[in-house]
Amino acid sequence: MTQRINPSILSADFANLQQELERISTADLVHVDVMDNHFVPNLTMGLPIVTRLQQVSPIPLDVHLMIEDAERWAPAYAEMGAYSVTFHAEASSDPVALARKLRDIGARASMAIKPNTPVEQYLDVLSEFDQILVMTVEPGFGGQSFMETMMPKLRLLDEARKKHGLDVWLQVDGGVTTDTIVVAAEAGADTFVAGSSVFNGVPADRIAELREAASIHGAHTHAGPRR
Ligand code: DX5
Ligand code: ZN
Question: Which residues hold substrate (predicted)?
Fold first, then answer.
């Protein structure tokens, strides 16, 4: 199984984003948190800034939209070239239709669920998505503690994808460290977002440490994203 480490630039220096992207060039994708101060109580960046990041980034973009009205905004991120676009189930009126639209445009279609959102209702439509993001903190801020109570959701998703032979990626976001990444990998996650744990140190070293820790679970190999 391929594993991916996606640093979140929410913990990067916002005054020097291009240099920060260079510091994480050994990662698989760069996780970009878009927040609108409505879906979550925090505000980060929007389409103009993310479009510039797309133009200068050495690695593909993994855009995480924590915004209301996903139908209105998500397609534009796919159109400007984001490799993966994640919208929240709680912010979408028709997740399957939106996922189909993102795929049609050429992006990987990904859906996130907040800690209080059950996953069972989506197991039957898993084939419509390229990735499911199981939030392991309440979205909005970096530096929070990993919620191990979310692991049963990952196990259900992992069982469902195996049963149906799907290669949907299972992403975790929030509180991922060299300790919690092992817990998440054991539960079935293969794609790991890490913000503060990457940027609190030397990013390339932290990325290597996270990769090493995740690979302890089973015989995993590293490979970059493929389209
Ligand atoms: C939180 C964001 C995360 C955040 C994770 O709402 O979606 O991507 O950057 O930060 P850490 O890794 O510090 O929990
Ligand atoms: Zn995120």
Answer: 8, 64, 140-143, 173-175, 195-196
**What's the helix, strand, coil split of the chain in %, to 5?**
45, 20, 35
Contacts of 188 (CB under 8 A, 6+ apart): 154, 155, 157, 158, 159, 170
CATH number for the domain that contains residue 10: 3.20.20.70
CA atoms within 13 A on the CB side of 175: 16
* CB 108 within 8 Å of CB 98: no
**Any ligand 1 atom below 6 A from CB of 176:** yes
pLDDT at position 225, please?
57
Asked if residue 181 belongs to a domain, the reply is: yes
With a 6 A CB cut-off, is 131 part of the ligand 1 pocket? no
Q: Is the CB of 11 under 6 A from ligand 1?
A: yes
Would you name the residues annotated as active-site residues?
A: 33, 173
Calculate the average pLDDT of the chain. Answer: 96
Nearest CA to ligand 1 atom 10: 142
92 in a structural domain: yes
Over the stretch 32-65, which tens digit does the pLDDT of each residue have?
999 999 999 999 999 999 999 999 999 999 999 9
Q: How far is the CA of 66 from the centre of ligand 2 (A)?
A: 8
Query: What's the number of domains the chain is made of?
Result: 1
Residue 24 CA to residue 191 CA, distance in Å, equals 16
Consult the annotation and say whether 165 binds a ligand: no
State if residue 84 touches ligand 1 by the CB under 6 angstroms criterion: no
51 in a structural domain: yes
Output the CA 163–ligand 1 centroid distance in Å. Answer: 30
